[in-house]
Amino acid sequence: MDNAKRMAAERAAEFVRDGMRLGLGTGSTAAHFVDCVGERVAAGTKLICVPTSEATRKQAEKLGIPLSTLDETPELDLTVDGADEFDQELRLIKGGGGALLREKIVANASERMIVITDASKSVARLGRFPLPVEIVPFGAEATRRAITRMLVDMDQTGAIRLRMGADGLVFVTDGGHYIFDCALGSIADPDGLARALHEIPGVVEHGLFLGLADAVIVAGDAGIKIIGNPGP
């Protein structure tokens, strides 16, 4: 699995051009891509990069990758990130690593987004991976109940769990928020669910990435497969 992730990352690195403004994703697969970017920078490629999390920022700094922020560099040429699952329409669920808000902001600021993943993340219908929903801590239980009522109205059922960290405490995102993981099993209407979640006060963002990915680079036993158009 790790070899597949590295293969996908190396293929995505082929689309990195000198002088690019580049968004750096978060997660185990994206970390391989950051390593590839570090190798290119060490070889002389000029890049300005915006990380999507504090973990990615620390990794990039160790590799000597020049970093910026979206305030300093508000428009990016390309973002490369991983995904927890994807379908053939290039719709994604992201947020397993807890960086979904910054990941979505960076992706939205990018001209193109390439997703790197392994074949196990491919699904016929989104929802096998629990959908992360980022919320403000204030009124968390009220927000959970509002999400539950909305899901019932949409004929979606499944457990909603507050994410906990490895230390046994509530997981807190880089933005100071909590995450509910919604085990829906199958999402019949991703677009409708995305709209409904945004209407709930207390919901900051959700892990449905719709209309953002231009291509998915998938590594598996048969090698590399590219779905969509990754660009020149």
What does this structure look like?
Helices cover 29% and strands 25% of the residues. By secondary structure, the protein is α/β, with parallel strands linked by helices. The protein folds into 2 domains: 2-122 and 210-228, Rossmann fold (3-Layer(aba) Sandwich); 131-206, 2-Layer Sandwich (Alpha-Beta Plaits). A 6-stranded mixed beta sheet has the order 2-1-3-6-12-13. It has a 4-stranded antiparallel beta sheet with strand order 8-9-7-10, with helices on one face. A hairpin with a 5-residue loop joins strand 4 and strand 5. Helix 1 packs across helix 2 (28-42). The protein is globular, with a radius of gyration of 17 Å.
| Widest sheet, order of strands | 2-1-3-6-12-13
Task: Based on the coordinates given, report the CATH architecture of the largest domain.
Answer: 3-Layer(aba) Sandwich
What number is the mean pLDDT? 96
The geometry reads as globular
List unreliable stretches of 5+ residues.
Answer: none
Helices, by number, come to 6
Helical residue percent band = 25-40%
Q: How many strand elements?
A: 13
CATH class of the largest domain: Alpha Beta
**Number of separate domains:** 2
Radius of gyration: 17 Å
Q: In the CATH scheme, what's the topology name of the largest domain?
A: Rossmann fold
Instruction: Tell me the span between the first and last alpha carbons.
Output: 27 Å
Main β sheet profile = 6 strands, mixed
> What structural class should be given to the helix and strand makeup?
alpha/beta
Query: Strand fraction band?
Result: 25-35%
| Helix and strand sequence | HEHEHEEEHEEHEEHEEEE
